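User: My instructor asked us to take a sequence, write out its structure as tokens, and then describe one feature of it. I'm not sure where to start. Here is the sequence I was given:
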Amino acid sequence: MDYIRNQNSSMKFILFPFVIFISFACQPNGKVSKTSSQESEPEGIGSIGTPAIPANFKETQLLLTDYWVYEFYIIPEKVGVGPNFVGTWYKFNPNGTYTKGQFQETFDNGNWYISDRLSEHLPGKTLKYLYFDSAVNDQWDIGFEIQGTSGYNMSWVKQLNPPDGESGLAKVMKMLTKPTREQFGR
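Assistant: Let's start with the prediction itself. The structure tokens for your sequence are:
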């Protein structure tokens, strides 16, 4: 009888740690075990400052109208057009906040700022500098020099040494509504 009692006691000491391990390993939330996709694109890592009413420039008044949409976006390091950016839009608000998306989807928001600044790309010239402070992802905190404007188009050149490590040139156009895939042949 003592042999059986000792056997049951030993079995409890072996099974107890196993049951504890299984109960923690099988948790449905992703905090116990990270996958590579969670590590490559973390969500909700944006920090954001306080919005400020944008300075009153000609470019500010243009940005506050309607939607501004990437007609094309070039990444020189990738030799060609960045097709994934076509149809990306910004909606600028007078209180210094913005929303951003692509076609009918919204995926970013935060604060925007505009100022005069010496050009990083054109030595000796002062240009308007547009900066985005994303509340969603700090990798999206980027700035652009506004190098050309008309009533319906602007050219933006991305800052040097951006958080995502890629340079870029965008031609943005003004649209009355969010763009559709059909408008861009997608």
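For the description part of your assignment, you could build on this observation: The chain is about 20% helix and 35% strand. Try explaining in your own words what that tells you about the chain.
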